[in-house]
């Protein structure tokens, strides 16, 4: 097994895995998201050797229905199928939360798929509200965790 490492990457480096793992019904040129190029945004990549096998993004965004102003949203967190279960998702999540913490964040949140909810719960996230449907990607939950300093 090659060594695993998480590094900061450019927004453009996330697009292929975003599409392959999260949005197979969309085109590559639809993989750009509004906060991708914001200077505070972090894109993290998980590498096995020199191969990028996992991605995740975090940027400032209030959580709907919450008054917390120092909130950061996790988006596009995904690990390639053959590389799941080796701790890469946890490494990526840890790097993203560390970035929000350094940026003064007091809360992180995400839209979790029904399948990934257990991953977030395992890392101390709680569910907020009822599940909702996102077109073509099924039921999702808003999940959040307070950042404890
Ligand atoms: C969710 C995802 C990123 C997890 O990545 P991963 O590399 O397999 O996760 P890890 O190996 O780091 O798992 C870390 C811990 O979470 C647990 N875990 C992982 N997925 C889980 C799940 N679905 N339910 C419950 N626990 C889970 C693991 O057992 C592990 O526990 P441990 O610390 O006791 O060993 C991956 O399954 C994925 O890419 N899913 C599809 C994309 C997606 O739904 N992303 C989230 C929406 S943004």
Question: Describe it for me?
Answer:
Helix content is 19%, strand content 38%. It has 149 residues and is α+β, with helices and mostly antiparallel strands. The protein has a single domain (4-146), classed as Gcn5-related N-acetyltransferase (GNAT) (Aminopeptidase, 3-Layer(aba) Sandwich). It has a 7-stranded mixed sheet with strand order 1-2-3-4-5-7-6, sandwiched between helices. The protein is globular and about 40 Å long. The termini are far apart. The chain binds coenzyme A. Residues 21-22, 77-79, 84-90, 110, 112-113, 115-116, 118-119, 122 line the site of coenzyme A.
- Compute the CA-based radius of gyration: 15 Å
Q: Name the helix and strand elements from N-terminus to C-terminus, one letter apiece.
A: EHEEEHEHEE
Question: Which architecture does the CATH hierarchy give at level 2?
Answer: 3-Layer(aba) Sandwich
What's the total number of strands?
7
Bound ligands, each once: coenzyme A
CATH-wise, what's the superfamily? Gcn5-related N-acetyltransferase (GNAT)
According to CATH, the fold-level topology is: Aminopeptidase
* Percentage of β-strand residues: 35-45%
What's the number of domains?
A: 1
> What's the overall geometry?
globular
- Terminal residue distance: 35 Å
Characterize the main sheet.
7 strands, mixed
User: Low-confidence stretches at least 5 residues in length (pLDDT < 50)?
Assistant: none
Our count of helices gives 3
């Amino acid at each position: 097994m090659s060594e695993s490492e998480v590094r900061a990457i450019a927004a453009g480096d996330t697009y292929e895995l975003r599409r392959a793992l999260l949005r197979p019904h969309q085109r590559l040129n639809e993989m750009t998201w509004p906060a991708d190029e914001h200077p505070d945004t972090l894109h993290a990549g998980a590498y096995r050797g020199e191969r990028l096998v996992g991605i995740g993004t975090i940027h400032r965004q209030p959580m709907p229905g919450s008054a917390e102003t120092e909130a950061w949203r996790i988006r596009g967190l995904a690990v390639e199928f053959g590389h799941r279960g080796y701790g890469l998702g946890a490494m990526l999540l840890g790097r993203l939360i560390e970035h929000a913490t350094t940026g003064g964040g007091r809360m992180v949140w995400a839209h979790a798929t029904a399948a990934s909810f257990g991953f977030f719960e395992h890392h101390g996230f709680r569910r907020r509200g009822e599940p909702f449907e996102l077109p073509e990607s099924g039921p999702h939950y808003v999940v959040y965790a307070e950042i404890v300093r």
